[in-house]
Specification:
It is a single chain. The protein is built from twelve helices and no strands. The protein has one domain. With 290 residues, the chain is mostly helical. This is EamA family transporter. It is a multi-pass membrane protein.
């Protein structure tokens, strides 16, 4: 799929639009939860995203080699598990909090194995952020929702690591389009067996299509375009703004309000993420997960 210069968006605005698109999609998803639940919503998002990306990218599946299948299949499975766990978390806790906790996964991956003193600062900031979020009195925050968000973050770290291997053997657009097919495998069984499935109507199906566009197709296209003219370091620093964008989206679109202490915690984790990226030797882009 070739990008048309006529409709090209400058790199930095493209990344910011991608972030806003993803968080708008998350708000749509959360609006569907009361009727469809997270399983059916995730199935709609991933299934329709896979179909749309196959149409747009048109990968030649018959020409893929065995070594390419060996990396793209686990990459897709990690992508599906990540999205499903995030939606399950989002059904229980505010959007900004869910994205902040999910960010711990790629941040831990970025800092893993580092022995530099500067990285200790980012670890301390991230740990302080998590400590401020944690409900030490056991009230006010859904513990299961927090655990699901952290699990989604762990899958995000795996997704990034597998993405590096996949990018070495497949073009980015083909990798995501094919990976999205396999992302549906761990999700669809939950969606198809959900008691909420009979509630699906043409109107809700249309909202599911919008969810797929805003959460996957549009941000994926904008990110791929931006990465052609932007360094991975700059891209990853901009992506560190995502928890803030999520909190603002939750506030403006869903009426979710975070306590002041959680805003402080979120900003500490954002600073840790941006700092780790800025000082990393070879930063890797953490593409959108949720």
């Amino acid at each position: 799929m070739k990008d048309s210069p006529r409709y090209s968006v400058p790199a930095v605005p493209a990344v910011l639009l991608a972030i806003l698109s993803v968080q708008g999609g998350a708000a749509i998803a959360k609006g569907l939860f009361p009727v469809l639940g997270p399983a059916v919503t995730a199935s709609l998002r991933i299934g329709l995203s896979a179909l749309l990306l196959l149409v747009l990218v048109r990968p030649r599946l018959g020409q893929l080699q065995a070594r390419q299948w060996r990396v793209v299949v686990p990459y897709g499975l990690a992508l599906g598990a990540m999205n499903f766990l995030f939606y399950c978390a989002l059904a229980r806790i505010p959007l900004g909090l869910a994205v902040t906790l999910e960010f711990v996964g790629p941040l831990a991956l970025a800092l893993a194995g580092s022995r530099r003193w500067v990285d200790v600062v980012w670890v301390v900031l991230a740990a302080a952020g998590i400590a401020l979020i944690a409900p030490w009195q056991g009230r006010g925050i859904d513990l299961l929702g927090m655990a699901l968000a952290l699990a989604a973050g762990g899958c995000w770290a795996i997704y990034i690591a597998l993405g590096q291997r996949t990018a070495a053997v497949l073009p980015g657009s083909v990798a995501v389009a094919v990976g999205m097919l396999f992302a549906a495998l761990p999700v669809l069984p939950f969606g198809l067996t959900s008691s909420s499935l009979p509630a699906l109507t043409p109107h809700l199906l249309l909202l599911g299509a919008l969810l797929a566009v805003f959460s996957s197709v549009l941000p994926f296209t904008l990110e791929m375009q931006a990465l052609k003219s932007m360094s991975t370091r700059t891209f990853s620093i901009l992506m560190s703004l995502e928890p803030v964008a999520a909190a603002l989206s939750g506030w403006l679109l869903l009426g979710e309000k975070l306590p002041f202490i959680q805003w402080v915690a979120m900003l500490l984790i954002v600073i840790a993420s941006a700092g780790a990226t800025l000082t990393a030797r070879q930063p890797q882009p953490a593409l959108h997960s949720e």
